[in-house]
């Protein structure tokens, strides 16, 4: 069985069987928390232990966002590969 995938802007992907796949928006969900962490980071003194802790909080949140995106892509690609024998992607030329 084969399927075609059209990658889009409003939806992450539209499959040839009509299914639409929405991508998670982890950054949008964590923007308030990120802004709070960055404000605290900006008010710390350069070279202090508190600045390092604040920097790590910001880095961990960015890492969490990256992990959510990567996890979504891995799960989606694994699911599609297991279901379909042939997968065709749209070519924009």
Largest sheet: 4 strands, mixed
Number of strands: 4
| Strand order in the sheet with the most strands | 3-2-1-4
Choose one word for the global shape.
elongated
Compute the average pLDDT.
92
List the secondary-structure elements in sequence, H or E: EEEHHHE
| Termini gap | 26 Å
Summing up helix and strand content along with how strands pair, one would put the structural category as alpha+beta
Helix content range: 40-55%
Strand content: 15-25%
- Unreliably modeled segments: none
Count of separate DSSP helical elements: 3
Radius of gyration: 19 Å
Which labels suit this protein?
single chain; elongated; 93 residues; alpha+beta; 4 strands; four-stranded mixed sheet
Verbal overview:
The chain is of the alpha+beta class and 93 residues long. It is 55% helix and 16% strand. It has 3 helices and 4 strands; from the N terminus they run E-E-E-H-H-H-E. A hairpin with a 4-residue loop joins strand 2 and strand 3. The chain is elongated and about 60 Å long. The mean pLDDT is 92.
């Amino acid at each position: 069985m084969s399927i075609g995938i059209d990658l889009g802007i409003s939806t992450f992907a539209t499959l040839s069987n009509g299914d639409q796949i929405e991508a998670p928006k982890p950054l949008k969900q964590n923007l308030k928390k990120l802004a709070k962490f960055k404000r605290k980071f900006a008010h710390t003194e350069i070279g202090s232990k508190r600045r390092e802790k604040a920097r790590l909080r910001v880095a961990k949140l960015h890492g969490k966002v990256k992990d959510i995106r990567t996890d979504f892509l891995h799960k989606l690609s694994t699911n599609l590969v297991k279901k379909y024998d042939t997968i065709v992607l749209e070519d924009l030329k």
